Amino acid sequence: MSWPSILEPAHAYALWAPSYPAHAHNAVMQTEERAMLGLLPSNLSGITVLDAGCGSGRYMRHVLDRGTVAVTGVDLSLPMLLRAQDELASCADPSRYCLMQGSVDALPVPDAFADIALCGLVLGHLEGLDAALGELRRATRPGGMVLCSDVHPIGHALGWARDFKSAGKRYAVRHTQHLYHHWHAACAAHGLAIESVLEPMLDPNDIPAGAHFDARALEVPVALIFSLRRIP
Fold this sequence. Notes:
28% of the residues lie in helices and 27% in strands. By secondary structure, it is α/β, with parallel strands linked by helices.
């Protein structure tokens, strides 16, 4: 099997957007999503949410279903934002959501903008955590929740790639390994208290029959998830 071409995130998602689903579309994402949603309050009535790196809007749909008063999705990729707009327009009241173009490390929102900030499977696309966690903290109200996930760093060590096909060619998105001590240092520097850390394992029932995958994935955690609290 040939190795995929590694692309910068903006280029990769421009190619991937037309076919990118607005739901967790593989076993790793399903595992990550169950853990994230387990930490997210089940009733978001009266709560405002920021989805930083919203992609095709999968977490925006979840928080709308849980009753958020308003959710704002920010993403660097305009094609992915257009994908999210198509998905949300078919299932949500436009007055309850907003989409904006911008980077997680330079969020286009005011200070203390949201009660909860989400960032799902995005931070590995950045070379460092510091600026992004600083921005997530800034955009969250004092005492608010910051909920982040990423591919577990063990996956990087095992050679896993976030790959996809476009026009018959195979590509992968550039990904940077962020270890626990990187998270700890960045949280300490920006006034984010670590409330819980999850390292979920794959559920074998999520793996389609006949799928080709690294069998070691059943023996190691596949995602790293942090529930953080902005220290006032």
